[in-house]
Every structure is written in C-alpha cells, then in structure tokens.
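Justification of computing resources. Each target in the renewal requires a structure prediction run like the one illustrated here; the chain below, 220 residues long, is used simply to show the kind of job we budget for.
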Amino acid sequence: MPRAVVLLSGGLDSTVTLASSISGGNETTALSFRYGQRHIRELDSAAAVAKHYGIRHIIADIDLSSFRSSLIGDSGEIGKDRKDIGGDIPDTYVPARNIIMLSVAAGLCESIGAELIYIGANSVDYSGYPDCRKEFFDAFEEVISKGTKAGADGTPIKVVTPILTLSKSDIIKLGMRLNAPLHLTWSCYEGGGTPCGRCDSCILREKGFRDAGYRDGVAP
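Resulting structure tokens:
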C-alpha cells in the first residue's frame, strides 16, 4: 500500500485532499502546523478531521512569527469584502509558507517511508498566492528529487495536487462524493465561534457551496 503525507490545515480544500488520498488507497498520515497563526481554530478542525478518519495526525511547531502576514499574530487587519479576489497577492500571503511546509512534509516522508505528498492547493478559486500554481509544484518536486535520499536512491517523492485546477464548487462536489466531513472544516481567516463571512476564504467558500447546490453545515 502506498504511503502518503497530507498537509491538513483543517480547511475545506485540505480536507477534500485528505479524502482523496484515503479513497485512493494510500496509508495516510496527516501533517498540520502550529506556526504562529493568529488563531488555532483551524487546527481544532484538523484534529477533528483526522479523528474522523482514525489516522495518525502530526502537528509540527515552526515559528514564523517574524514573517509579515495578516494571518500571523497581531500583524494587522485581514482584508474584508474584496471585490477582485485572485487579482493580486493579498495581505494574508505568508512568505514561503508552502515551501517550508512541503520541505517538512518531504522530511517526514523520508522518515516514515512515504512516497507521496498531498497538498490541497488550488489555482482557480483562490486568493492569488504565488505558491499555489502548477509551475511551483513542478519545480519543488524537482528540488526534492535532487536533494533527498529518496531521490538519490531512485524513488523520488511525488507532490500530488488533486484539486489544483478545480473550481470551489467542484471541490465541494468531490468532497460530497468522497463523503468528506466538510461540516468539521473551518475556512475563515478569523477565529471565533462563527465564520466572519467577509474574508476571501469565507467569500470563496460561500460561493462554492451556493454554486454546488449544497448547504454549508458550518455557515451561520
């Protein structure tokens, strides 16, 4: 059975990606990060999702508190009600976050004998992050093939992006087909008990459920 490490934030996209790995027959380990983000609500969801599937869940601590992003600590207000989502790189961008997290995932793969990294990146209905594009993942896969023992041994680690070119509504439809626990997920950039409904992530999620024809079990 193939082994996979899935980056699990606790959000909608990463949970559907996790469901995709499991449905594909992989022995799956979930990897989340406590990196100094302004709230840990999403991590609670990640733990709930991993528990739902009964899989191993690792939370790695990395300190990105010195990085400039509205998602980290009290670095500033998160942009709300943006009309041109995806048109520029927003203040919620965390510099090099996917590079760092994929690097940790590659190290974990080598440590547990996994050959696949799944990441729930999306380049269609997304906020415009530069590290969510196919050319980035192709380049990163080449980097880890050259810089790991697995690559040197001829068994390079593959980066799998199952939802990269799907719209948000198609991601939700896929999650429904895979019986992913979407009601356990959290997408809002803010913490608290209910989603703010105004950040990029909330807006994209609400539109996705509406276009897919489903009710969001998390929305107020």
